[in-house]
Amino acid sequence: MIKNTAPNPVKLKLADSEKITINLGFVDLGHVDLLVAEGFYSNRTDFIRTAIRNQLGTHSEAVKQVVARKMLVLGLQHFSADDLRAVQAANQTLQIRVLGLVTIAHDVSPELALATIASLEVLGALQASPAVKTALANRLR
What we know:
single chain, 141 residues, alpha/beta, 3-stranded parallel β-sheet, 3 strands, elongated
């Protein structure tokens, strides 16, 4: 009997959130902890997410206007190596403007990224290989 010793292909999981760190005064933190202890929120993270969503809701009209004015793509935008090769074959370059998440596939080389991405403005998060991020650093706004 022959055993298959080939490694299993690695499945990349797309993160559905970005971790941030905040500094909060002791009194404010105490207020948050009190609301959690009293059952208003399940934990500190639940409180913070709710507060952020409430603030975003308060400013939603202003956000919509800025998104339209700056011609931002709202949400997720993914670029594969095939996508960028098609751009390159058409002798074009991209000006990427996204409010949300930009992902550049791990098989995209730094050279291909440089040849096809003229500028990159991301309000949110950029997921790409370290080499591609380094190559595009001076084009990132």
